[in-house]
Amino acid sequence: MSSFLSQLHFQLSCALQQRIEICKLRQGEHLILGFSIGGGIDQDPGQNPFSEDKSDKGIYVTRVTPGGPAEVAGLMMGDKVMQVNGWDMTMVTHDQARKRLTKKNEDIVRLLVTRKSLEQAVRHSMM
C-alpha cells in the first residue's frame, strides 16, 4: 500500500506542475520574455494577490504581455514559478529571480510552474 501511495503522490505532483519553454524575443540588444513577476523571500507576502493565506513568499507571474513570447508559450498570470532552467526558485529574493530569468546568454527559458487551475482539475478528477 505504501508503494501505491508514493506513486499516487508522484502522479499528483506531476499533474500539479507544468513545464513551459519560452523563446526570448530579440529586440536590438534586448531579449524579451513578455511577462513580469512579483514575490520573493524579501517581499511582503501580504501584498501578493496570488497568495491565498498571505504567507506565501514564492515567485508569481503578475503580468503577461498579450501576444508576447510568454503568452505564446502558455504562461498565465498567477502561475507560481518553481524552477527556472533547473534552478530552484522557491526560496529566492525578487532580484535573484529577475536575474535568473533575464540572463543575457540564454535565448530559451524553461520554467516549471504550478497553477491553481491544475490543482482544481486534479482535485475534481479525484471526487
UniProtKB/TrEMBL annotation:
What are the record keywords, sorted? Acetylation, Cell membrane, Cytoplasm, Membrane, Nucleus, Phosphoprotein, Wnt signaling pathway
MF terms (GO), sorted A to Z? protein kinase binding
Q: Does the keyword Cell membrane belong to this entry?
A: yes
Q: How does it sit in the membrane?
A: Peripheral membrane protein
Q: Which SMART domains match?
A: PDZ
Q: Which GO terms describe its cellular component?
A: adherens junction; basolateral plasma membrane; cytoplasm; nucleus; postsynaptic density; postsynaptic membrane
Which ranges carry the PDZ domain? 19-116
Keyword Cell membrane listed? The answer is yes
Q: Which CDD domains match?
A: PDZ_TAX1BP3-like (cd10822)
Q: Please indicate which superkingdom the organism of origin belongs to.
A: Eukaryota
Q: Where in the cell is it found?
A: Cell membrane; Cytoplasm; Nucleus
Gene3D superfamilies associated with the record: 2.30.42.10
GO process annotations (BP): cell-cell adhesion; establishment or maintenance of epithelial cell apical/basal polarity; neurotransmitter receptor transport postsynaptic membrane to endosome; neurotransmitter receptor transport, endosome to postsynaptic membrane; receptor clustering; regulation of signal transduction; Wnt signaling pathway
**Where is it chiefly localized?**
membrane
Q: What is the official name of this protein in its record?
A: Tax1-binding protein 3
Q: What organism is this sequence from?
A: Oncorhynchus tshawytscha
Task: Name the gene behind this protein.
Answer: TAX1BP3
